[in-house]
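Board notes, transcribed. Complex of a protein with alpha-D-galactopyranose.
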Amino acid sequence: MGKLEICNSFKKLNNFFFKMFVEGNQNKEDAFKKKGLVNILSPGRVNIIGEHTDYNLGLSINTAINKYIFIAGYENETDYVEVFSRYLNDSNKFSLSDIKFDKNTHWINYIKGVLNEYIKHGYKIGGFNIVVDSNLPIGAGVSSSASLEVGVAKFIEELFNLKINKIDTVKLCNSAENNFVGVNCGFMDQFSVAYGKENYVIYLNFKDLSYEYIPFDLEDNLILIINSKEERNLVNTEYNKRRKECNDAVQLIAKIVKNKNIKSLSDIGLDLLNELEDKIPEKLFKRVKHVVTENNRVLLSKEYLFKGDIEKLGKVLFESHNSLRYDYEVSTERLDYLVDEMSEIKGVYGGRLMGAGFGGSIISIVKKSEIDSITNIVGEKFLKKFNVSPDFIECLFSDGTRRLRFKDI
Ligand code: GLA
């Protein structure tokens, strides 16, 4: 999505906001100026490689993409927050002094969770009205939830002039998802959304959240996301169970090898991994194997990125998928089918399931010139097999969540 399209989307959103929330026959420009309309653009994310490594304090290479959530709004001088989602055609209203988890309206909990965290940490915020729109698919593994969280966080930071570091925004949004929404996710999603940079990917070490931008000029290639349309809700999946299995494995291994310095699976190297095979239950071994080898694949990918070797990078992506499929066991029939098919097609460097798994999307790196034939072949075969057409999303790397100022709204 280019600058002009973004600008047009905000024009439409602001007009919608005006019709929805501005009373009487006020002049639009005056009303917006007086109230200080805030426009926030918040991207989705891709994870090139390093899956299920974040909560194991490992490594990944991820970034923001040029598909977004759009937010427009201003203060309403009450204690209420009024939200309208254009994307879902749904609205919600709640009081800031009575923020409760909503069992029936799942999407509002991401907003409530963020506000709850900021209030808990002593930030002074008041009521506001917002309209939210999106061209990020929900439940597809491109982090629409983190995009909404960081977008709302940035919105209140701008609206109420809160002074906060970007890394603390990431941490508060992550706590919102862990404490309020109930998914024990790691930092990858919120970090990518907040820290993305056009034409770069982020090499991130979750042990201390240190990071490095790596230039990734896609040149004649594209990142192609294929949405299997198998929706999953992380709270109800095995995601939290995998986290627990990893914690159990850490404790067991630290005991077996009598090494207190093993605090996470990322403290285990390939040598130790080989020694562990007969010493811990098979299922736990497979989880550990995925994390240890995945960290290694991230290191290799970093090297290939610096060398500009997309062929080798692509192969590592396929290997990552196999590890997620057979060792971490978070794949599905549809995701396996997509990756298997892609591995047979000309112009595809590599691909793998992206995000938590259990449905959602795969990420692939493909040649731009082959895009039509790739989408035709895969689209037709997938439709025949599963009776659903997958969605193809071509994307580029983008800057992170930001406020946009338009002089001519
Ligand atoms: C989800 C979580 C992330 C990460 C991935 C798997 O996207 O939100 O924190 O754990 O799954 O890599």
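The chain has a mean pLDDT of 94. The pocket of alpha-D-galactopyranose is lined by residues 51-52, 54-55, 185-186, 188-189, 355-356 (CB under 6 Å).
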